[in-house]
Amino acid sequence: MSERDRKQKIRETVWRLLEEKGVASFPLPVWGRIPNFKGSSTAAELLINTPEFKGAKVIKSNPDSPQAPVRERVLRRRKLLLVPTPRLKGEFFLFSERAWENPREASRISNFSRFGDRIPLREIPDVDLIIVGSVAVSGDGNRVGKGEGYSELEYAILREQGKVSEKVPVVTTVHSLQVLDQIPWEPFDVPLDVIVTEREVMRVKGVRQKPKGLLLEYLTKEKVLDTPYLLSYLRDTGRLEEILTREKA
């Protein structure tokens, strides 16, 4: 079984488990999503009391539902919040003063364009903390998302542009049922430094090195053409032709 197939089997197991145990939360069904879960607000409260959160001024978060409580708390504490357009269909949103006045509404995906400012890549401030959504995680810092790779692409682009360093902590909030003994990983996967559940804060020991940028050998023409922001970025950095030429060979 390939690593990709193993990851998909893990996703399906966790989606099923969350629904069977009654901890899956809106939007339902959770299949095919970063699953929302009962206890996401409790996990967010635990996260904001960590030194990683308290010491961060600029926080990048995924746009998915289970991390909405985290985004709201970022804004309540008047920190800068960076969120990508879902599925990298457009630029990143930067939330500041306008969002601070209405953090609950601003934290919702449907209101990103109302409360956030679209910001060019070159103007993004240096990021101090990264929040990612996960379908499943393991205690050694591995994770799987919903299988589309957007968190990895976002990280790689920001890393290449010097907006994120190796030392920037990567954190996820999940239900304790999403924490597994083992998860396979591939070179483009971004490892976690901290895992926060509704019960506890888990710090990963001996985190492996994070990807330093985009690994073109893992990008397909279909993925690039279906991701406008990635397509534009590769064109601007002069690497689009390499992928297109490889696909024709």
From TrEMBL:
UniProtKB keywords: Ligase
Gene3D superfamilies listed in its UniProt record: NagB/RpiA/CoA transferase-like
A single GO cellular-component term on record: cytoplasm
InterPro entries: FTHF_cligase, FTHF_cligase-like_sf, NagB/RpiA_transferase-like
Signal peptide: none
Domain of life: Archaea
PANTHER family: 5-FORMYLTETRAHYDROFOLATE CYCLO-LIGASE-RELATED, METHENYLTETRAHYDROFOLATE SYNTHASE DOMAIN-CONTAINING PROTEIN
Protein name: 5-formyltetrahydrofolate cyclo-ligase
Organism per entry: Metallosphaera tengchongensis
